[in-house]
Every structure is written in structure tokens, then in C-alpha cells.
């Protein structure tokens, strides 16, 4: 089998092979997904071909920036468009493509990659671990009252209910650059968030609100009239209002947008499609049980390619020291590292000291952004803790300033 980059000449072969792997024809509309393939970077697309030159598999990567705890922005390869023709599955085509791709990412100097998994069992073996989680929150309109009246709050603590800003209702086509600018400000401060390169917006490649799918956009502006949040939504069957994204640069803007969508007349329920696990919205409702959480799922999977570089890149909230024994069976690698954190920065060097924790690189990917507690993975039998207190220390150390969340679809 040969694995090689796609050229401009055979991008259509790539797209056709991928569509066949997903059981679709190219002309099949992908609901709300826009022209997703127009955002592909040709030199980052891989084709797997049989010995007689027939294309049987595809994989690609986008060049994103990922926000780490401590508001650090790092390059991240967004692995996508992975597919193998049904006639050639379970013969190692994906494994060969993943190995090829990881080697290539390292050659580019990238030290981590991320992806969204169509099925959970696929990517753990190649070193990816689920690192951010998301859920849907459904609030019946008749239970949508907030615990605090709108004007509550003081100048010192304005986040709960006060809002000196305003909400304007626009159609998707009227938004100009507002959504792109607000999203960019939001993602720089949100651990786990990915950049949305300008060309995605320009090409309208992706799911709403990037795509031109008809949507209402509630834009929130601060007291100075500067946009600082938006909610993209549509009203569909049974008068259900579905919010694709609520993007806000602070809690006050989020709350104002939530109040706006929950206050719609003639709506039976409001579905927030992407709510992070620790989001305060349920606590803001007068009836705590009003918000029903469903579709709780993994979103971003993380794969570390250079453990010391990855651990020194992120910010840390407290001081501490841990010895991590990290196994990478997919790439046949192993390393033992002393992680020392002082004043928010980490040092990570090879060591032969006794380990505190032994873990697979996929588990390190899961805990890396602070969205999965190491102690949960110890209790699950994934991570081995070699001394009492090691897991508790790891929990405290890996925590992020807020729970990581990603809602970009790619
Ligand atoms: C997922 C997919 C790419 C796997 O390709 P493949 O070439 O069959 O994978 P491989 O033969 O390299 O499999 C490697 C291992 O992963 C396992 N595996 C692969 N896909 C799996 C799946 N969907 N569920 C469970 N295990 C899976 C294989 O059984 C194999 O295990 P083994 O090493 O113990 O034998 C392919 O099934 C496909 O195209 N599916 C439809 C499209 C899709 O879901 N793409 C992923 C988008 S995120």
C-alpha cells in the first residue's frame, strides 16, 4: 500500500473516496455542514492506494490553534476526513495512515493533534484520548424563569444577572465579520477551544453559523456597543428553538443571550446544543431541574507527540512535582519524566526516579486540558498510581482555570 499527499489534481478523488467511505454520494447534501471539503488544505490530505493504484483510504489535517489552560495558544493539527472504503476495512489501512500522519506531524514540528471521533473505539489505539466533553441542555419554556431578576448584581459582582449591554437580532447574512471577531476573542480565553481560520468563514465551510444555513443571530453588545457575544439559532418542529452556538467573551454576555433565547414567545422549549459540563446555566434557572441534560458526549480528542513540550506549553494553577511514566505503544515509545511546576510554569525532564503515575499517552491526552481528572482514570484502571496521594496531587495539578470546552466541528 502507498500513502501519499493529495495533489490539486486529485482532490476530487480524495473527496469521492471519503464520501464512499461514509456511504454518501458527493451530491448528497450534508445538512447544514456547508462545503466542508473546501476548507481542506491539499498538502495536508493523504490518500491510501492499493498496489495497483486504487484509492481506498483518506485522512487529512487542518492547521488550527488550540487554547491550553493558562490562555496559551499552540498549533494543533485537526485530524479529519478519515475514511476507508468498506471493501478494505480491518486490514490495517487506518493504522497505516495514522502512523504516516503522526510521523508527518512531528516532521512539521507539531507536538499535538486533535480530532472528533465518529465512534469512540477507533482512536484510542493510536494514542488519542477524549479530553473535552459537551452536552445538550433542554429547557421547557414554561420553566425558563431565572433565579435572579434581570437587574440583580452590583458593580463589583455583575456576572449573575446585571446587564448594561443590549441584544440585536440579525439574520446570518447581515452579520459581516461580527461572528468571526467575537468567536476569536472567546476562543483565546477558553481552554479546549480551537481557532476558526479566516478562510473557513470566507468559504462558509462548516456547520452553522459558519455555513450559510438560514439562522437568526442574537448579537450581544457591551455598554459601549462592542459585540461580545452571539447566539445562533433556528426555530423548527414543534416550535423548538435550537441554539447551535452561544459564544460569549464573559459570563454576563452569556447570561444575557440565554435570557434572550429563553424569553421567546410561542416557543415550547429551548435546546442549547453545546453546553460545557460545568456551565453555570442550570444554577441560574429558578428551577434547577428545568434544564434536562442529554447527549452527554466526548468532543475533542487529544494526542500528544512530544510530552515535555506539551507539558511545558500549558499553564498551571499550583506548584507541585510528579514523576510520570508514559507509554506510547502505537509509536513504540516510552519515557519517564519529572514534571515540576513553579509559579504557573512547568519544567519537564527525563528522569530515572520512581514514578508516581504510570499511564498511556492516550490517558495523558485525556487529562492534558484539565477536563478529565487523573483520579477518575486511576479508578477506571487506566492509570496506575504508585503511592497514596499521587492521584489527588495530579487532580489538583492538571486542573484548568475553567473546564475545557470545544464546539468547533471539523
Ligand atoms: C473507522 C475506519 C476508518 C477504520 O479503518 P480500518 O482500515 O478498518 O481500521 P484498521 O484496519 O486500521 O483497524 C485498526 C484496529 O482498529 C479497530 N477498529 C477500527 N475501526 C473500528 C471501529 N469503528 N470500531 C471498533 N474497532 C475499530 C480494528 O478492529 C483494528 O483492531 P485490531 O488492531 O485489534 O485488529 C473505517 O471503518 C471507516 O472508514 N469507517 C467509516 C467512516 C468513519 O467512521 N471514519 C472515522 C471518522 S472520525
Name of the CATH superfamily of the largest domain: Gcn5-related N-acetyltransferase (GNAT)
- Spell out the helices and strands N to C: EHEEEHEEEEHHEEEHEHEEHEEEEHHEH
Major sheet attributes: 7 strands, mixed
Number of helices in the DSSP assignment: 10
Helix share of residues? Answer: 10-25%
Which regions contain 5 or more consecutive residues with pLDDT less than 50?
157-161
Summed over residues and divided by their number, the pLDDT gives a mean of 94
What is the domain total for the residues? 3
CATH fold category name of the largest domain: Aminopeptidase
Strand content: 25-35%
Structural class, judged by helices and strands?
alpha+beta
Instruction: List each distinct ligand once.
Output: coenzyme A
Q: C-alpha Rg, in Å? A: 22 Å
Q: What order do the strands of the largest sheet run in, or round the barrel if closed?
A: 1-2-3-4-5-14-6
CATH architecture identity of the largest domain: 3-Layer(aba) Sandwich
Verbal overview:
The protein has 10 helices and 19 strands. It is an alpha+beta fold. The protein folds into 3 domains: 2-110, Aminopeptidase (3-Layer(aba) Sandwich); 135-296, Aminopeptidase (3-Layer(aba) Sandwich), CATH 3.40.630; 307-398, SCP2 sterol-binding domain (Nonspecific Lipid-transfer Protein, Chain A).
Amino acid at each position: 500500500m502507498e500513502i501519499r499527499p493529495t495533489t490539486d489534481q486529485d482532490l476530487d478523488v480524495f473527496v469521492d473516496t471519503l464520501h464512499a467511505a461514509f456511504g454518501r454520494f458527493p451530491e448528497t447534501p450534508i445538512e447544514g455542514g456547508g462545503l466542508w471539503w473546501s476548507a481542506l488544505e491539499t498538502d495536508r490530505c493523504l490518500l491510501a492506494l492499493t498496489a495497483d493504484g486504487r484509492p481506498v483510504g483518506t485522512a487529512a489535517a487542518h492547521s488550527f490553534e488550540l487554547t491550553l489552560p493558562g490562555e496559551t495558544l499552540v498549533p494543533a493539527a485537526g485530524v479529519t476526513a478519515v475514511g476507508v472504503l468498506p471493501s478494505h476495512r480491518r486490514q490495517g489501512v487506518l493504522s497505516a495512515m495514522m502512523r504516516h500522519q503522526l510521523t508527518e506531524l512531528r516532521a512539521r514540528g507539531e507536538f499535538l493533534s486533535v480530532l472528533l471521533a465518529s465512534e469512540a473505539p477507533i482512536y484510542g489505539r493510536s494514542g488519542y484520548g477524549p479530553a473535552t466533553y459537551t452536552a445538550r441542555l433542554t429547557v421547557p419554556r414554561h420553566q425558563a424563569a431565572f433565579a435572579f431578576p434581570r437587574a440583580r448584581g452590583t458593580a463589583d459582582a455583575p456576572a449573575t444577572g446585571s446587564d448594561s449591554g443590549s441584544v440585536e437580532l440579525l439574520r446570518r447574512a447581515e452579520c459581516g465579520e461580527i461572528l468571526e471577531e467575537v468567536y476569536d476573542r472567546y476562543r483565546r480565553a477558553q481552554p479546549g477551544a480551537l481557532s476558526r481560520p479566516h478562510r473557513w468563514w470566507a468559504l462558509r465551510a462548516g456547520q452553522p453559523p459558519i455555513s450559510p444555513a438560514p439562522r437568526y443571530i442574537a448579537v450581544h453588545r457591551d455598554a459601549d456597543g462592542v459585540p461580545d457575544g452571539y447566539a445562533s439559532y433556528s426555530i423548527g418542529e414543534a416550535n423548538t428553538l435550537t441554539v447551535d452556538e452561544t459564544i460569549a467573551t464573559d459570563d454576563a454576555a452569556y447570561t444575557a443571550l440565554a435570557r434572550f433565547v429563553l424569553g421567546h414567545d410561542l416557543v415550547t422549549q429551548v435546546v442549547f446544543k453545546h453546553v460545557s459540563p460545568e456551565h453555570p446555566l442550570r444554577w441560574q434557572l429558578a428551577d434547577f431541574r428545568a434544564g434536562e441534560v442529554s447527549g452527554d458526549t466526548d468532543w475533542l480528542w487529544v494526542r500528544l507527540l512530544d510530552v515535555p513540550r506539551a507539558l511545558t506549553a500549558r499553564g498551571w494553577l499550583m506548584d507541585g512535582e510528579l514523576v510520570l511514566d508514559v507509554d506510547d505503544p502505537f509509536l513504540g515509545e516510552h519515557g519517564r519524566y519529572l514534571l515540576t511546576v513553579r509559579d504557573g510554569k512547568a519544567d519537564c525532564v527525563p528522569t530515572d526516579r520512581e514514578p508516581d503515575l504510570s499511564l498511556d499517552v492516550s490517558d495523558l491526552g485525556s487529562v492534558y486540558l484539565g477536563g478529565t481528572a487523573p483520579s477518575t482514570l486511576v479508578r477506571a484502571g487506566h492509570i496506575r498510581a504508585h503511592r497514596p496521594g499521587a492521584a489527588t496531587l495530579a487532580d489538583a495539578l492538571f486542573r484548568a482555570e475553567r473546564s475545557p470546552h470545544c464546539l468547533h466541528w471539523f
